[in-house]
Amino acid sequence: MAARIFVSAQARLLDIWDYTERTWGTRQADAYLRGLAAAINKAQTSRSLWRSVGDEQLPGVFYFHHRHHFIFFRQLSTEEIGVISVLHESMDLPARLREDAATLED
């Protein structure tokens, strides 16, 4: 089963592809996004990768690190995760994650 990618995470993934394509070209952008997708799929079956965000304002939110990005998600069922956001390691992670998580309540 594929992970559910929320709108906030879809927008971040498009931004990542656009930046990578402008900087290193289409092939690298495609390869990087394929790597992120594979990592997300692996996380669904490898709970040992999961780390709790540990923020009481974001209960039940987990993350894992892939290359230069952090993938934030919630467990939706025993077999599915919902990706909330994908953020570059240099970003203000707490602020951006709260922005993206807030869009889930709309």
Which short descriptors sum up this protein?
five-stranded mixed beta sheet; 106 residues; alpha+beta; 3 helices; YaeB-like fold; 45% helix; 24% strand
Report on this structure.
- With 106 residues, the protein is an alpha+beta fold.
- It has a single domain (4-105), classed as YaeB-like fold, CATH 3.30.2310.
- Helix content is 45%, strand content 24%.
- The chain is built from 3 helices and 5 strands.
- It has helices at 7-24, 26-45, 93-102, and strands spanning 4-5, 51-52, 61-66, 69-75, 81-88.
- Strands 1-5-4-3-2 form a 5-stranded mixed β-sheet, sandwiched between helices.
- α1 packs antiparallel against α2.
- The longest helix is centred in the middle third of the chain and has 20 residues, at 26-45.
- It is globular, with a radius of gyration of 13 Å.
- The model has no long low-confidence stretch (mean pLDDT 92).
Please give a quick description of this structure.
The chain is of the alpha+beta class and 106 residues long. The protein has one domain (4-105): RelE-like (YaeB-like fold, 2-Layer Sandwich). It contains 3 helices and 5 strands.
The CATH fourth-level homologous superfamily:
RelE-like
Number of strands: 5
For the sheet with most strands, the description reads:
5 strands, mixed
Number of domains: 1
Which structural class do you get from the secondary structure elements?
alpha+beta
Going by CATH, the architecture would be 2-Layer Sandwich
Measured as a percent range, the helix fraction is 40-55%
Distance between the termini: 25 Å
Order of helices and strands: EHHEEEEH
Instruction: Assign an overall shape.
Output: globular
